[in-house]
Amino acid sequence: MTVLARTVEATRRYGDVLALDRVSLDIRAGELVGLLGPNGAGKSTLINLFVGLRRPTSGVVELLGGSPSDPVRRRGIGVTPQETGLPESLRVAEIVDFVSAHFPDRVPKEELLARFGLDDLARRQVGGLSGGQRRRLAVALAFAGNPRLVFLDEPTTGLDVEARRTLWEGIRSFHAEGGTVLLTSHYLEEIEALAERVVVVAGGRVLADDTVRAVREIVGVRRVSFAAAELPELPGVVGAERHGDRVDLVTTDPDRLVVELVRSGASFSDLEIRPTTLEEAFLALTSKESAHV
Ligand SMILES: Nc1ncnc2c1ncn2[C@@H]1O[C@H](COP(=O)(O)OP(=O)(O)OP(=O)(O)O)[C@@H](O)[C@H]1O
After folding, report:
1. Which atom of ligand 1 is nearest to the CA of 46?
2. Residue 228 Cα, ligand 1 centroid: separation in angstroms?
3. In what order do the strands lie in the sheet with 222-227?
4. Alpha helices in the chain (DSSP H)
C-alpha cells in the first residue's frame, strides 16, 4: 500500500525539551489513524513535522513522497491545527473561496459546506459564529482542496455532541471515498468511533501502534470496582479512583487482584469486574507506576 506520510527515527527538541524521540511511523493511503496521547505527548509536534511547519532535529520526514517543505506536496494535504484564527469580518463563503483558491482541485463550495453542516451559514460573518460553528468551519477548510491526506489536530475540542457527530460524518464520508486522515484526540470515544488504527504516544515516543481492539488486548486491563472503607496494597493496579464508598481499580490482572483482596481480609462488597474501554487501556500503557487510593 502506498505510504503517504512517513517519519523515520524522527526526533524533535525544543531547547531542553525532547518533544519527539525517534518516532518511526507510516501513514498509508486510505487509512484513518487516531493519534492518542496525554497533554504534551508530542502529537502536535508530529503533525507539525508532517505538514512542514517544523523540521526534525534529526531523522527523516516524508510527505507524499517528497519533502514536507515542498509547496507541491503541501497542496496535496489539508490541515486543521489545534487553534485557528479566521478573519472576523469575512463571510463563511468568502473564507471558503479564499482557501480554495490556493488549490488546483477544489471541492464545490456548497458541497463542502453541506458536508460539515454549514450550508445555512454561508453568508454569515465569521465574527458572528459560535465557537462550535467556527471549529466546524476550520475543519471543513482542511478538505477544501480535495486533499489526498488530511491532518486534524483535536478537531472536535469544544464541540457539543451534535456538532461533534456532524463533524465525524464529514470525516467519515471523506474516508469512505478513499481519503486518508490522521487525527489527534483526547476524546477516546472519538478514536473508537472513527479510527481503525490507533497510535498511542506519550513522552515523545510511540507506545503502541495497532487496531483499537488490539491495543485493548495488548494491555488486557479490566476495571475492578467494589465498596470498601479501606484499601490494602494490591498488585497490578495501574489506576485507582474513589467515588464515595466505592473504589475503582484498573488492573492488568483482575484474577490476582481479587485473590489478593480476599486474602488481605479487608471487608468489601458489591464486587464488579468490567471489560476495558480504550481509556483504561491507554491508562495502563502510559502509567509507569501503580496508583494508590
Ligand atoms: N514551540 C515550543 N517551544 C518549546 N517547547 C515546546 C514547543 N512546542 C511544544 N513544546 C513542548 O514539546 C512537548 C510536546 O508538545 P506537543 O504540543 O507536541 O504535545 P501534544 O501531544 O500535542 O499536547 P496537547 O495534547 O496538550 O496538545 C511539550 O512538552 C511541549 O511543552
Report:
1. 18
2. 40
3. 237-243, 246-251, 222-227, 269-274
4. 43-50, 71-74, 92-100, 109-115, 131-141, 161-176, 188-194, 212-219, 254-263, 278-286
Q: How many Å lie between the centroid of ligand 1 and the Cα of residue 247?
A: 34
Rounded Cα distance between 128 and 134, Å, is 9
- How large is the ipTM? 0.96
State which amino acid sits at residue 175.
H
Of the residues 20, 43, 188, which should be mutated to test ligand 1's pocket, given the most ligand atoms within 8 Å of the CB?
A: 43
Minimal-distance CA residue to ligand 1 atom 2: 14
What digits encode the pLDDT tens for the residues 81-136? 988 889 999 999 999 999 999 998 999 999 999 999 999 999 999 999 988 899 99
Domain architecture of the chain: domains with CATH: 3-216 (3.40.50.300), 221-275 (no CATH)
Answer whether 0.90 is exceeded by the pTM: no
Residue 17 Cβ < 6 Å to ligand 1: yes
